[in-house]
Amino acid sequence: MNFEGQKLEYATMRRISVLNVRKYNERFAIIYFEDKYVSRSVPGQYIMVWIPGCDEIPLSVSHSEDGVCAVTVKNVGEATSRLCNVSIGEELGVRGPFGHGFKCMGAKPLIVAGGVGIAGLRLLLYKFVRKSVLPTLIVGTKTFEENIFHEEFLKLSENRLLIYHPVTEDGSLGEKGLASEVAEKLILSNEFDQVYCCGPEKMLYNMFNIVLDKKIGSQFLLERYIKCAVGICGQCVLDDEGLLVCKDGPVFTKNVLKRIKDFGHFSRNACGKKFPL
Ligand SMILES: Cc1cc2nc3c(=O)[nH]c(=O)nc-3n(C[C@H](O)[C@H](O)[C@H](O)COP(=O)(O)OP(=O)(O)OC[C@H]3O[C@@H](n4cnc5c(N)ncnc54)[C@H](O)[C@@H]3O)c2cc1C
Fold first, then answer.
1. What's the CA gap between 117 and 221, in Å, rounded?
2. For the residues 179-191, what does the mean pLDDT come to?
3. How many domains does the structure of the chain reveal?
4. Does 132 have pLDDT greater than 60?
5. Any domain includes 172
6. Which of 57, 233, 269 should be mutated for ligand 1, with most atoms under 8 A from CB?
7. What is the dihedral of CA 23, 27, 33, 36, to 10 degrees?
8. Chain-centre distance of CA 117, in angstroms?
9. Which numbered atom of ligand 1 lies nearest the CA of 58?
């Protein structure tokens, strides 16, 4: 991604100061900050966030409005725990935005999010709303506490800007089951022209198999262990094609994923060693 006249600046580390933190519970937080490059992110792009003394990790850009951006973090380990507990005014580093995001297309889009995968889809959802296209959104989580944007999406659906289907595995909110199960039913009874997915790879793979033989365009945000983010280290390579999630993705179409043997089956750990999903 090139910004006119500032071709590499976006890829170098900038110091940012945390403007605000919205903590939902011990496991989820939204961290707000200002950065001129991040605020120009395309939906589905990610940034590298450096936590001094800890680690640098990839996170989707979930918010961008009036120059203020945010990332939405689920606490799953050391770096994300540190981020979920940052204070206003604390300094972090950011690089990016990186990668190819979603192509916002279609007159009848279906957006399917699993867990914190909604972070990578939220900007896309608002892009459709701004274009006066009515998206259908499925948000699948284990329990209602994990659907942190529920109130926001409910309001959009009450204002007829969104058709919203919350789904939980334990039935504590919306339909009981998996996001992909609800998506499969909706796809059979609607004429969606584009499907967008982000979430655990098992869910992406289910969605991929559902749309594989259908005449529906589809885009999937894939996660891999990302280090350099600029296509140099090869850590996030996908077999057999040698595509790199950091720069060729993280969003891939169904037609590209058809050729990726790793998709749905293997990932790589921090050392680059392959392991079965
Ligand atoms: C393109 C992309 C977008 C992402 N967007 C979000 C988001 O918006 N919100 C969110 O909460 N999470 C997101 N993630 C996942 C997030 O990067 C990991 O949860 C985070 O790196 C875990 O770090 P940790 O130290 O807390 O946990 P660890 O204990 O180090 O690891 C926990 C899990 O996270 C994975 N992980 C660790 N480091 C990395 C890394 N550098 N790159 C990728 N995975 C890693 C590990 O393989 C392991 O499966 C995204 C990942 C990618 C690749």
1. 9
2. 95
3. 3
4. yes
5. yes
6. 57
7. -140
8. 5
9. 17
Q: What is the pLDDT of residue 21?
A: 97
Return the pLDDT at 6.
55
Final residue of a structural domain among 54, 79, 98: 98
- Give the residue whose CA is nearest to atom 42 of ligand 1: 225
80, 98, 251: residue to mutate for ligand 1 pocket, most atoms within 8 A of CB: 80
Which stretch of DSSP H or E encloses residue 16?
A: strand 14-17
Report the alpha-carbon distance of residue 251 to residue 237 in Å, rounded.
14
Residues of the domain holding 39: 9-98
**Residue 240 — very low, low, confident or very high, per pLDDT cuts 50/70/90?**
confident
Instruction: Say how many Å lie between the CA of residue 170 and the centre of ligand 1.
Output: 25
Task: Single out the residue in 98, 117, 140 at which a domain terminates.
Answer: 98
pTM comes to 0.95
Look up the CATH number of the domain holding residue 25.
2.40.30.10
165 CB less than 6 Å from ligand 1?
no
Looking at the structure, do residues 121 and 195 belong to the same domain, yes or no? yes
Provide the pLDDT for residue 26: 85
- C-beta 45 within 6 A of ligand 1: no
The verdict on 235 and 206 lying in the same domain is no
Report if residue 1 sits inside a domain: no
pLDDT at position 241, please?
87
Sorted by sequence, the CB contacts under 8 Å of residue 225 that are 6+ apart come out as 235, 236, 267, 268, 269, 270
Same domain, 107 and 202: yes
pLDDT at 25: 86
